Each structure stands twice: as structure tokens, then as C-alpha cells.
Amino acid sequence: MDIIMVGIAGMIGGAIFVLTGPAIGLAGSGVIIAFVLNGIITLFTAMVYAELGSAMPEAGGGYLWIREGLPRPNAFISGWMAWFAHIVAGSLYSVGFGAFVFILLKMAGLPDQPIFGMIPVDKLIAVASVVAFTYINIKGTSETGRTGTIVTLVQIATIVVIIGFGFWALQAKPGWEFEFTDQMFPAGIGGLVAAMGLTFIAFEGYEIIVQTGEEAKNPKRNIPRAIFISLAVVVTLYCLMAFVSLAATKTPTGEPVWKFIGESGELGITKAVDLFIPYGAIIVLAGGIVSTLAALNATTFSSSRVAFAMGRNYNLPHALSIIHPVNRTPHVAAVVSGAIMAVMAYALPLTDIAVAAGVIFLLLFAQVNIAAINIRKIYGDKLKYGFKIPLFPVVPIAGVFLNIGLALYLLVTQPLSWVITILWIVAGFVLYRKYTFKKEVEHYAPVVTSEGVQERLGFRILIPYMPENPDRLIKYAIRAAKERSGEVNVLRVITVPPQTPLSAGVAFAESARKSFVPLEKIFQNSGVLSHYLVRISHDPTEALLATIEEQKINLLITDFETTRRNKKLLALTTCDLLAIRAEEDSLQLEPEHLRVEADLEMHAVPAEEKKNLVAVYDGGAHSGMVLKITSWLEHSGRFNINIVSVSKKESDTDGSVPMHPEYLTQLGVGLKEIHLSDDSYELSHSVLNAVSSFQPDLVVMGATVGQFSVFQSPPLLSTIRQIPCPVIVTREFGIPGVRRAKSLFMRITGR
Predict the structure, then answer these.
(1) Looking at domain 605-751, which of 3.30.43.10, 3.40.50.620, 2.60.120.260, 2.40.30.10 is its CATH number?
(2) Model pLDDT, residue 649
(3) 186-193: which pairs have CB atoms within 8 A and are 24 or more residues apart?
(4) What CATH number does domain 446-570+583-604 carry, 3.40.50.1370, 3.50.50.60, 3.40.50.620, 3.30.565.10?
(5) Which residues, 6+ apart, have CB-to-CB distance to 365 below 8 Å?
(6) Which range, of 8-22, 122-136, 375-389, 714-728, averages the lowest pLDDT?
(7) Among the listed ranges 53-57, 448-452, 604-608, which one has the minimum average pLDDT value?
């Protein structure tokens, strides 16, 4: 019950009294359809929150899931945005509460002059309300939940009373049905869409619900229930409030009800209710007071939990994660969040900032939908779900487009909101790069040894150190480094058990450093700059991801089998990737004992001694990377190049392959063409036969062939294992979701 009340409070806020009037002015009686459509649209994201809230019920909500499912910069930025949005929402509710109380005080005849001639009474009331609910949140979750439940029940009772009086008033207004037949969509479909955009954010309080994850009883069952029940209740209340306001109101001048309410703007519902309920304006003001208090309680709770989660992960100062020894609440996070909220409520104009908070929530929800897809890929059945999204991944993909679409709508109608949003994101990104990322890495994967030449080059390659065969991947890194005038970084991770402090790994630092000595000689002979890092971590994947971000790595070269099993690495890597499968790899990519590239011309390999390199090219997302790597290897002078072209249609028989001429020109390649198939087994068989016909010594292929993933498709995995030579699988980094959208667009347009 407490969680349901938190959700209802966050969704209703004061919006049911303030936003419904302007929405009626835009859509007329069609506003009810607008509310229903908003409920259906927001259901897509609500289902994602229900699934993740039940499977990963921890404080932090969307921030936590983005941290698990998207590359690291997204995690901090999403948490930074969510914290800001919750604080702004709380400030807005406190200002609304202060305004409602101030109006009642004036109606009671009390003086409305500023205190000491300079402190506005309504602002002072707003600040006092923030202080009060911050204190309640510090006292404990039971007090917070009990207070919130009582206030929200009073809020619902007030709304139900208004709706009940409205239905009673229908008896005195025959022909009320014409309000819905003659006054629907006075501004057309554009008015309906505008009304939806204005009120959409009111239906998305489930971000507050999931913040209760660590303090809720049986969250796997109760969080999904709370999300769906609160959403159903709120949509119903909004529709009924709009219905009675339109049906029961008799306008003084006989003008259409929708016009009377719409022209009154934020006071439209207040004036309408005052016409069919005695003292209706006072009842609406009382309802507004209670509603804003309930929402303030919910947002004060949620903002402190976001700050607590970010502090716990060192994305904000770690002091924010301190738990009160008696009350067991994040009291430092509550005080800091409450202090910022109070300052905003008193000093800042919140109208435009509040719309920016709406944009921020929409961008956060879009990221959560994308993260949900990746979390399913990374964890699979390892998580225990209390609710699973039907029609996966259609639902989260629809959620992404719906949230981004509405955010873009606000860009057109409220451009200042995007300016504020972008400024806040830029400020957060600067903070992340200059401070929080360093602190995070220091605590999760500290560097204990860093060696190599001081000079740093623009193109940087990273190789994870493999004790069983430390130099196997180095020759590929050296070839790439020479092509791009780059450097090679070698990372060794000392993995410490989760229950053991990281300091225990320091004892192994010296032996780890000595393991680099044989590699140094290889790099010195090749003339390639090299650097060596030793990190201590509980999670070697986290250490690898941190190194990619910290060292600004452009290319990661790893073992194929190790990478294939590491779904987290595949999902969160933010650089290009070469995954190499080679049990026995005796290929020579460089003349021995040569230091400079020019010497290759003096030691050209005779044609009959060249090896056969086969590139599998499908024109897809990673095909550019395939040709790039192929050209780098061809420049060694040791390979004959052959292309297996995977064409899209049977009619593509002209043999033309868009091979990016900047990579492969004037090479005289061998060419064999096969056709895409919807059956992965048939496609894999065709690829294997085509590649084998060239008797390859080395194969290069993309991370996808057609629509199938090389890392996940069993037939393609089997094909790679049957190829009796080293195989390089390339993957080009792209922003999550963008490549898929581009691929879908090209498929629709037939390109």
C-alpha cells in the first residue's frame, strides 16, 4: 500500500488541478481520449520499469539499470539528470504548496505582505515544507511511508468528493451529453497531440516507485503491482475529473464549457468546480495543498535515493552513501538534496526549469528502455523476475521512440527546456571527466603499476594480458599500430575475491610487473611504443572497461572465445574490437628483426610464398571495419586478398561490391559471391564452403553476417570453429540503438 501511495502521489501531484484545464482548452472533450492514449503510451515504459524493478530492486532505479546495461558515461549522466529532475520536481511541488496555502491565507483575510518587507510568504511556506519532509525522510522509511500514505489517501478522497459531486450535479443539467458530441477536438488532431504533450509527464511516477526497491517488502511482487495499480488509478482519476468538469459545469455566459475552462488556464478546474460545488474553489485549493504535499513527500524520498545510489558508486561524493546509525536512512543524501531543493524553491523561476525536468525524465526513460534490452542479453536467466515484458524487445523499442518523440515535441514547443537540459548535461559530463570518473576507478579498479615510455600517441590499442600465451595477440596489435602510427597498451588485472579487500592484491603487483619484461623486447624490436598497466579489481571486466575509458582506447584486441562468453564486455565496450580465434597461430605478419615500415620494400615476399587472406564482406554495420583490417594486413606484403561477398538478393549477380576504395584499391582481389539467407544454418554452410574454397591462412569477418551475430549464433560459431586457421572477428563501435535504427531505415528504404 505504501508503494502504491508513493506512485499515485508522484503522478497526480498538483497536475490534476493545474494541467487539466489547459489540456481541455486544447482538446475540448477529447481530453479524455488524450489521457487514455497517454496511459497506453506510458504503459510501454512502465512495463520496462516493472521488469527491472522486480529483478534489480535497489535504490537508484533508472540510474542503476543504465549503469548495468549501458556504457559508463551514460550511467553517471543518467543519474546526474535523474537527481536534478527529482529535485526540480520537489521544488515545483513545494512552490505549488506555498502558493495554494498563501491563497487560502488571503481568502481568510490574513495580511499578505512580505515578512520584514523582503521575504515572500509563499516562498517561506515552500521552504518550510521542504525542511519538514526532509526531516520526515531522515526519521525513517516507516514514518515516510505512513505520512505519505495518509496524505495521499486524503488527496484521493478530495478528488473522489469532487467527482461524486460532479455526477450528482449532472441531474440538474439535462443534455450534458452534447458537451462530448459537439465539443470534441475543437482544434483538430493537433489540439489532441498538444494536450497529450502537456500532460504526458504526469503519468510517469513509476521512477519514484522503483526507488523504494531496497526498503520494500517482497519487491519482486510488489513493485510491478504498485506500478500497474497506481497507473490505472491515476488514469481513471484524470479521466473522471475531466469528465465531471465538462459535463457538470454550467457556464455563466452560456459559452462552450471547454472554452470557458481553457481560457481560465491553470485556474480552469478551480472555476469549473466552483460552479457545481458549494465552496468548490476552496475544496480545489485544499485538494491542491494535499496533492502537492503528497508529491513533495514522494520526490523528497526519490531524490535522496538517487543521490545515495550515486554516492555508493562513487559517482558523487561517497559521503552521500552514509546510512544513519539509528534510522537506517541515507540522511546525508536527504539533507543535501533537501537543501538544494529549498534553494531552488526560494530563489529560482521554476516554470522553464520544470519543463526541462520533463525533458530529462523522457531522455532517462529512453535510456532505461535501451538498457533493458542489454540487461536481458548480459544476464539472461540469471536474474529472477517478478514480471517479464511481453513481446520483448518490441515493447522497450517502442518505449524508446515514444519518449524521444515526445522530447523532440518539447524541443519545438519549449526550446528553452532543451537549452537548460543540455547545459545541465554538459556540466555533468565535465564533472564526470574531471572528478567522478577518477574517483570511481580509484575505488573499483586502482592502478598499482604503470610503466612505459612517457610519450602518448593519438591512436591507442589495448590488449588484455593472457598468462597462458602472452604474445599471441601482440603481432596483430603491432600491425595495427604501424598502420595508424599508434601505441599499444597491455593490461593485466589482479582479480581479488569479492569478500576480500582490494588492498590484498598489492602483494602480487611486483610479479605482475615482471611478467611484462618479455613483451617489452618484442615491442622494442618492432619500434612500436608500448605501455603497461596492472590493476586490482573484484571484476576484471570492470577493470577492462575502466581502462578503455581512462586511457581513451580506440581499438581493443582480445581472444575470441573469452570475449564471446563475456556478454557484459560486448554490451558495454566503447571502442572498436578485434576478437581473434587461433589455437595455433604461427603466421608471420612482419619481417623478423625489422624496425621500420620502409624495410618491407627491401624484403618483399615472393608471390608464391604469400598466404591467403579471406575477408567475408556483407555490406553491413561492421563491413567497413572488415575492409580496414584487411587493408592493414595486406600492407604487410604477406597476403593475397580474397573476398567472399554476401549479397542481399539473388538478383545481385553483377559482382559489384561496395568495398570502400580508400581501404581496398588496386589489389586484384579474388572474389566469390554467396547470397543472404533467412536461415542461419544455410547461411553458415555457404560461408564455410566459400571461405574453404580459397584454402585460407587467415580469415577476417564482421561481428554480424546478415542479421545473425557471430558471437551468439550457434551455426556461425560452429563455422568459425571449423575454419582451420586464425579468424579475426571485427566489431565497429556505434552509439547503442543508432546502428539498429540505421539498419532498420535502410531495410525499409530498400538500400
Answers:
(1) 3.40.50.620
(2) 59
(3) 186/27, 186/28, 186/256, 186/258, 186/259, 187/26, 187/27, 187/28, 191/26, 191/27, 191/28, 191/30, 192/26, 192/27, 192/30, 192/33, 192/34, 192/37, 193/409
(4) 3.40.50.620
(5) 45, 62, 204, 207, 399, 403
(6) 8-22
(7) 604-608
